[in-house]
Write a structure and sequence with these properties.
The protein is built from 16 helices and 13 strands. With 416 residues, it is α/β, with parallel strands linked by helices. It folds into two domains: 195 residues, Rossmann fold (3-Layer(aba) Sandwich), CATH 3.40.50.720; 205 residues, NAD(P)-binding Rossmann-like Domain (Rossmann fold), CATH 3.40.50. The strands form three sheets. Strands 3-2-1-4-5-6 form a six-stranded parallel β-sheet. Helix 9 packs parallel to helix 12. The longest helix is centred in the middle third of the chain and has 32 residues.
Length: 416
Amino acid sequence: MITVIGLGFVGLTTALGFSEKGIKVYGYDINSEKMNLIANKHIPFFEKGLQEVLERNLNNNFILSQNLQSSVKNSQIIILCVGTPSDDKGKADLKYIKSALDSIIPFINKEDKKIIITKSTIPPSTTAKEIIPYIANKGFDIGKEIFIANNPEFLREGHAWDDFINPDRIVIGTGDEYTKATMREIYKNFNVPIHFVSINTGEFIKYLSNTFLATLISYSNEMSIIADAIGDIDIKAAFKIFHEDKRWYGNPANMQSYAYPGCGFGGYCLPKDTQALCAKALEYDYNPKILNSVLEVNREIKPHWIEKISQSVSEEEPIVILGLSFKPESDDIRQTPALEIIKQLLAKGYEKIIAYDPLANELFAKTYNLPIEYANSFQEALELSNTFVIATGWQEFIYNKDSFLNKKVFDLRYVL
C-alpha cells in the first residue's frame, strides 16, 4: 500500500495513477475543503481526464484517509506531494515538507522499514543536507530503520494524466537496494525505463528539465525584444521558420512551445524552481548568470508589451484581456503573466479593463480581486471593445481569429 500526502495537482494525479495501475492508495490532505470535494467526486482543479479516473477509483483502489495513523501504518511507501514555494530570498521553502514529516513520523515504527518518497520539487542536495538530518534527529537510523528517496514528477498541466500513466521515463533517487526493489515493483506495469540515480542526481534532473524550459522561453522573449528594437522583422514568421530545422524533430517532445516568444513563463514550477536553483548555486559560491538573466528577462517582457500597448492605445479606451490562466488547457492562475499585464495597465492609468478566460474567470476574480470587469463568453468579449490583448493562447481564440478582423490586437503569444 501507498499513502500520498498532499492532494494537489501532483499528489492527486499520482494517487489516482497508482490506483489505476491496481495499487491500493490512501490519499490525505490537510485541507479539509479539498478532502470534502474529492470525497464528493469533484476534482479541486481543472485537469483534463482526471474526473473520470476519480469516479472509477474512489473507494476502490483509491481511499481518502480518515485516519492518517492507520494509513501510514498500513502503507509500505509514503509519498510526499506537498508544496515547496519560494521564500522571500527565492529559496525553496521546506515548511510543508517538514510539517508533513512531523505528521507521519510519530506513526512509524523502526522495524517497519518504511520508505518516504519525496515527489515535491526540491533543489539538489536538499534531501542530503536538510531532510535526512531532520528525520535522523527524530531518532531514526537512515537506511536501516527508515528509507529516504525522491521520485521527481514530469507532469505538464493540462496533460498530467497522460504524462503520469504514459511517462517517457521514471527517475528514482536512492542509494539502497531495498528502495530500488520496492520502487521497481510499484512501477513494473508502466513499461518505460526506470533510472536509479543518486539522491542529489534525482533532485537535479527535475531542475535540469524545468530551468531548461524556462531558459528557452526567456531566450525567445529576449529575441523578440531585439527583433522589435531592430524593426521590420516578422517575429511570428521568423520563429516558425526557425522551427523547420529538422533537429527539432529528433525527439518526440514538442519543444517548439518553449522556444517561442510570448509574455513570460508562469505557473507553479518554472518561476520558483529557477529561483530556487539560483539560490542553491549561490550557496555553493557560484553566480548563475544565465539563470539570473532568465528571471530578469521574464520580468522585462511584461513592461515591454505594456510600452507597445501604451504607444497606440489611449487610457480611456476599453481593453479586453483574453486568457487569464498561465497556459491553455488549465485553470492554473499562479504567477500567470496575465496578472502582471493587468496590474501594469492599471498602473499606467487604463480605466476600463475587461477579462475573459474559458476556465479561469471566477478563480482569477476571487484570488486577485482586481478592479476590472469580466466577460462571460468570447462572443461577449468581442462586443465590448476594439482592442484585445491575447495573454493565453487558447484554441478558442485561434479558431476564431477571423473575429479579430478590423480590430486592434496585441498578440502576446504570437498565436494568430
